[in-house]
Structures are given as structure tokens and as C-alpha cells.
Specification:
Layout lengths: L8 H12 L16 H15 L3 E4 L5 E5 L7 E7 L12 H16 L7 E7 L10 H7 L4 H5 L5 H11 L16 E9 L4 H5 L3 E7 L1 E10 L16 H19 L3 E4 L3 E4 L9 E10 L2 H21 L3 E10 L2 E2 L2 H14 L3 E6 L5 H4 L5 E6 L15 H20 L4
Parallel strand pairs: 3-4, 3-5, 5-14, 6-13
Antiparallel strand pairs: 1-2, 2-4, 6-12, 6-14, 7-10, 7-11, 8-10, 9-10
Bound molecules: glyoxylic acid (GLV) and manganese (II) ion (MN) (2 copies).
Length: about 425
């Protein structure tokens, strides 16, 4: 048997190093929040690299693509991920998936391999949710809702500023929708962002499904007063109410929802001084699970608890839901293509769900979708220390290449 086709590991490495310099931080990671100057610079770099041999496309949601057309093909197999990062993030999340996708297209072009479908290496807009979350992939999948744009996770001002910086028109975003009939599938290579592969010593994860999540902003309202003269019994301290709620969230999840995780990642007190009792506390809340019913039950319990903690401190509470992603399964045909490709490369695999959200979550609604994971050393991610052994990145890219060829050849021209 012929050995499977391999990507050019040196070219991938040199792209990875060049991209890691864009938005680089002193801590050794990158900070490229969606549609920031650093993110736009990364996208300009991607367009330039793609244009060296491939067709370049940018859609109305700002998704960037390199396209390899195949003679007579009607459908397109998408592969890719995202170039935006969380603030103070790492070098691998999203980047490795976009770079590997680009490298797969170059490899197939250079090998003069003819496939029955077009190939498109895509970089989706705002996967991380510093603005909306999965903005580009949801627009492409026809899932983006106007309400998500009216109440984005990062707030309206940040969304409007980002779109203006990128030259994108909010009224045109939904036009990025593709006809599902035009697609042959979607494959995404990504770092695991958790410890399972690293701990098991297995280099390839085959993703079975992706967690769903709910995101909220909570605002507790109390009464500002003098921090020195107001007796403890006469306070309506919004900071205490919000903090008690945060502690209760952890207890509820640990004791009643072992299949869920919940995070309060941002909190501010107002007016915000040593000597004023907080009148207002505002915080985010995000919780996730592969079990959609558990998410809804947890939501009910948490909203009740927010009200009771507010009442105890003589405060009021209001909330705004700013994101809602349901759990999705990866397609059996895509999982099979990944498994076969890994086997042909002689690498061991572990089938596992994803605890992180991904663009694949949007695409799974409209086309056969699969994800390949490579190990995150010590499970660290969304942090500058995020690290994946280079050999694993190359292996992941080669498994992606084999899976692309397998998925593509299941289709007729
Ligand atoms: C994206 O990485 C997310 O899971 O928040
Ligand atoms: Mn990611
Ligand atoms: Mn991420």
C-alpha cells in the first residue's frame, strides 16, 4: 500500500511562527480579540498567504477563505477554524486549525490530486465570543439571530466598533448564509484545551459531540452609602449579594449538576471605591454541559437563587441572556473518516466530547461535521502557556489531510 500523502511540516511551522508574532504578548501568547487591530493584521497575513497559489474569498460576515476549485465540482468541503483569540490567549487555539487547513489545500494542489468537491480553508469571524461568539460560522450556517446582534456578549459598543474597523456592515452579515446543498461537510482541527489526551498519552482525539452553553449578564442593585458610618445591619450591599450568588453557583453545580461546569469570569462594582458600599454589581455567568436538559434545569435553579441572594441583602437583581448554544453531535461519517485517516497514519485515537465551544458547533446543524483534537500539554488553554507538541500539530494536520480526502471522495462530482 502507498503511504498516505503528508503535509509540508516545515512550511506549516514557518506559517505558525509568523502568525504567532501577530498580536504577540510579553507572556509568550497572543492577544487578538475579534476584529481588533491585531486580529485584522492576522487576517491580512492569512489573505496574503492564501493568495500565493489559491483563490481568496471574504464573505459578508468577514469569514476569510482560501479556495481550491476542482474541475466540474458542485459542492464544497469546508475545513478550518478561527484566527481570533481570547484576551491574553495562547498561540494554538484556532490558529492551528486554520493553518493546517491552508496547508492541506496546498498539499492537495501540489500533489495534483483531483477530488469531486471544491476545498475551502476558512477562518471564521469572532469564534471566541469577545463580541458575539461564533458570529461568522453562525452567519454562514444561517443560524445568526438579530437578537444576538442586539444583545452581544461583549456589548453593543464593542460590536459596532469592531464591525466598523473591519469595514463590515451589520445589515449584510446574514448574507453570508450558504445553501447547505452547496456543502459537502466541515472538518476542524483544534487543540483539545483540556487534559484528557495528554494524560492518556494519545495523540489524536476524535470528537463525538460539543457541549452546549448559556451566557448571562447579571446586575445586582443595592444602595450606595458611607462605608464607615453605615451599620452592617442597615446596608443593601450589591457586592455582597453578587458574591454570595457566585459562591452558591459553585456549590449548586458541584452538589447537583456534576455533568455541568459554570464560570463567573468578569465582575465590576459601582461606584467602585474603598469607602462606598456598592450600589451595583455586574457580572457575567457562563455554564456548559453536553446534556441540554441539565442546562435548562440548572438555569432555572440559578435564576431562583440569584433572586433569593438579592433578597437576603435587600437588593434587586436583573439578568440578560446573551448567548445560547445547544450541545451537538459530530456526524458519524466524519468521525469514521477521521478514525480511518488516523489508522492509516498509524496513530492511536481517543473518542471524546469537547468541553470547549467551536465553529463546528454551527456547521453541524447544516452539513456533516467532524473535529480532530490534538493534546494540550497539562490541559492548559485560554492562557499564554497553552502548548501542543509540534509533532502532535503535524500529526493532526496529516490526519486532517487524510480525513479531507476520505470525506471528499464520498461525494459525486
Ligand atoms: C471557546 O474557546 C470557548 O469554548 O469559549
Ligand atoms: Mn478555538
Ligand atoms: Mn478558545
Amino acid at each position: 500500500m502507498m503511504p498516505p500523502l503528508q503535509i509540508n511540516a516545515e512550511r506549516l511551522r514557518s506559517d505558525f511562527e509568523a502568525l504567532s508574532r501577530i498580536g504577540a504578548t510579553a507572556e509568550g501568547g497572543v492577544s487578538r480579540p475579534a476584529l481588533s487591530e491585531a486580529h485584522l493584521a492576522a487576517r491580512a497575513w492569512f489573505r496574503e498567504r492564501a493568495a500565493a497559489g489559491l483563490e481568496v474569498n471574504v464573505d459578508p460576515a468577514g469569514n476569510h477563505s482560501a479556495v481550491l476549485r476542482q474541475p466540474g465540482a458542485r459542492k464544497t468541503l469546508l475545513l478550518g477554524s478561527h484566527l481570533d483569540s481570547v484576551p491574553q490567549g495562547g498561540n494554538y487555539d484556532g490558529s492551528i486549525g486554520v493553518l493546517a487547513a491552508l496547508e492541506v489545500l496546498r498539499t492537495i494542489k501540489e500533489a495534483e490530486l483531483l477530488l469531486p468537491v471544491n476545498l475551502e480553508a476558512i477562518d471564521f469571524t469572532d469564534e471566541e465570543g469577545t463580541l458575539v461568539g461564533a458570529l461568522g460560522s453562525e452567519a454562514l450556517a444561517g443560524l445568526l439571530k438579530e437578537v444576538a446582534l442586539r444583545h452581544p456578549r461583549g456589548g453593543r459598543a464593542a460590536l459596532e466598533a469592531g464591525l466598523a474597523r473591519a469595514g463590515l456592515k451589520e445589515s449584510h452579515l446574514l448574507e453570508a448564509r450558504r445553501d447547505p446543498q452547496s456543502l459537502a461537510g466541515f472538518l476542524e482541527l483544534h487543540i483539545e484545551q483540556g487534559p484528557r489526551l495528554d494524560q492518556a498519552g494519545v495523540s489524536i482525539g476524535v470528537v463525538t459531540g460539543i457541549v452546549g452553553s448559556r451566557s448571562f449578564w447579571f446586575t445586582f442593585e443595592g444602595r450606595a452609602n458611607h462605608a464607615g458610618t453605615t451599620p452592617m445591619s442597615m446596608r443593601a450591599d450589591a457586592g455582597v449579594a453578587a458574591s454570595a450568588f457566585v459562591v452558591a453557583i459553585r456549590k449548586i453545580v458541584l452538589e447537583q449538576f456534576p455533568q455541568c461546569v459554570a464560570t463567573v469570569g468578569q465582575m465590576t462594582f459601582e461606584p467602585g471605591a474603598f469607602n462606598i458600599i456598592p450600589a451595583r454589581a455586574r457580572h457575567s455567568l457562563e455554564f456548559r454541559s453536553v446534556d441540554g436538559d441539565a442546562l435548562e434545569n440548572l438555569k432555572t435553579l440559578l435564576l431562583e437563587r440569584a433572586c433569593s441572594e438579592a433578597k437576603k441583602q435587600e437588593c434587586r437583581v436583573a439578568w440578560e441572556q446573551v448567548a445560547n448554544w445547544n450541545p451537538v453531535a459530530m456526524h458519524p461519517a466524519a468521525q469514521a473518516a477521521i478514525l480511518q485517516s488516523a489508522k492509516a497514519q498509524g496513530v492511536e485515537t481517543l473518542s471524546m466530547p469537547s468541553g470547549a465551544g467551536h465553529d463546528a458547533q454551527s456547521l453541524a446543524h447544516i452539513t456533516p461535521t467532524g473535529m480532530i483534537f490534538v493534546p494540550s500539554v497539562k490541559g492548559i488553554s485560554h492562557h499564554p502557556d497553552e502548548y501542543t507538541e509540534w509533532a502532535h500539530c503535524v500529526q493532526g494536520a496529516n490526519v486532517l489531510l487524510g480525513a479531507v480526502i476520505r470525506m471528499a471522495t464520498q461525494h459525486e462530482r
